[in-house]
TrEMBL record:
One Gene Ontology molecular-function label: ATP hydrolysis activity
ABC transporter domain span: 24-266
SUPFAM superfamilies attached to this UniProt entry: P-loop containing nucleoside triphosphate hydrolases (SSF52540)
PROSITE patterns per UniProt: ABC_TRANSPORTER_1 (PS00211), ABC_TRANSPORTER_2 (PS50893)
Tagged with keyword Metal-binding: no
The keyword Transport appears for this protein: yes
Pfam families per UniProt: ABC_tran, oligo_HPY
Gene3D superfamilies, per database record: P-loop containing nucleotide triphosphate hydrolases
Record InterPro entries: AAA+_ATPase, ABC_transp_ATP-bind, ABC_transporter-like_ATP-bd, ABC_transporter-like_CS, Oligopep_ABC_C, P-loop_NTPase
Protein name: ABC transporter ATP-binding protein
Length: 337
């Protein structure tokens, strides 16, 4: 019961009180991949609970291989979970038919990491943006494409160009226009600015923030850059080896992280002011291989504050911490509050 209460606190607030159905509610979400040749399997996600309310922005952070992109692909309907529940707008979709998932795709769209690779090089931009409109039976006239281009800060003449004729930032703006075309309730943004020049990143982030506020669209925002997540997201979940280690309000998690892994991530983030810089926590070794995860706490093989056999043998519960939770044997129900 403690774990469920803590995990649900990952949700962000849509700005109005009330028991409204969340846009996204994942419970016990698990995804296992079989290795080539049938030699074992990899558990990319292990019992993830995650909630995103209407209009909220929830960030996912963690090292490469932590399961961020796998979770994004499941939410976007590109792959199915092995186990667990996934509810979109109150409807269970974990085991939904392909036809039903296609119908729901209007409500969930995705912005990809590599903007140029996400666009069909053979299609002019107007056809790329019009594609989701046609798919969902919406007007796909040139005037609507021009309106969407204007909404993301591009001139109407871009409609006649091809992806290779655009810069990376322009391609990402086209990808954003495509994502918002059908009026989705949730956008999954998978490292949407990491492939862009630093000077362009701020422009795209500001654009996404303006669109979020204007349209009321919820975001599941994936990034390895804590500064970007801190700017864009009200809440954050920290993933390690397919499991949420800590969650809560972004400012709380980054200001006073309680899980040792979250503390290490925060210590590695650049600080603008000298007074804000923390002593760097250097983790020893590499993350365990997903096909051979450790017993007990998944982080115990690299944890700088490991307290003994309990860390090696017993998986920690999700203890409440403020409006979120953290999984660590150093916490107790009383200390975590």
């Amino acid at each position: 019961m403690r774990e469920t209460a803590g995990a649900s606190a990952v949700a962000g607030s849509a700005g109005s009180a009330g028991p409204a159905e969340p846009v996204l509610a994942a419970a016990g979400l698990t995804r296992t991949f079989r290795l080539r040749g049938g030699q074992g399997e990899v558990q990319a996600l292990r019992g993830v609970d995650l909630t995103v309310d209407a209009g909220a922005s929830v960030g996912l952070v963690g090292e490469s291989g932590s399961g961020k992109s796998t979770l994004a692909r499941i939410v976007a309907g590109l792959i199915r979970p092995t186990a667990g529940s996934l509810r979109l707008l109150g409807r269970e979709v974990a085991d939904a038919s392909e036809r039903r998932r296609r119908a729901l795709s209007r409500d969930v769209q995705m912005i990809f990491q590599d903007p140029r690779a996400s666009l069909n090089p053979r299609l002019p931009i107007h056809r790329t943006i019009a594609e989701p409109l046609r798919t969902h039976g919406l007007p796909a006239r040139r005037a609507e494409v021009a309106r969407l281009l204007d909404r993301v800060g591009l001139p109407a003449r871009v409609a006649e160009l091809y992806p290779h004729q655009l810069s990376g930032g322009q391609c990402q703006r086209v990808g954003i226009a495509r994502a918002i075309a059908a009026g989705p309730r949730l956008i999954v943004a998978d490292e949407p600015v990491s492939a862009l020049d630093v000077s362009v990143q701020a422009q795209i982030l500001n654009l996404l923030k303006d669109l979020r506020d204007e349209l009321g669209t919820a975001f599941l925002f994936i990034s390895h850059d804590l500064g970007v997540v801190r700017f864009f997201c009200e809440r954050v979940a920290v993933l390690y080896l397919g499991q949420v280690m800590e969650s809560g309000a972004t400012e709380r998690v980054f200001a006073t992280p309680r899980h040792p892994y979250a503390q290490a991530l925060e210590s590695a983030a650049p600080a603008v002011r000298l007074a804000e810089r923390r002593s760097r926590i250097v983790l020893q070794g590499d993350p365990p291989r997903p096909e051979d995860p450790p017993s007990g706490c998944p982080f115990h093989t690299r944890c700088p504050v490991r307290i003994g056999p309990v860390c090696d043998e017993v998986e920690p519960a999700a203890y409440p911490v403020g409006d979120g939770f953290a999984r660590c044997h150093l916490l107790t129900p009383e200390e975590g509050r």
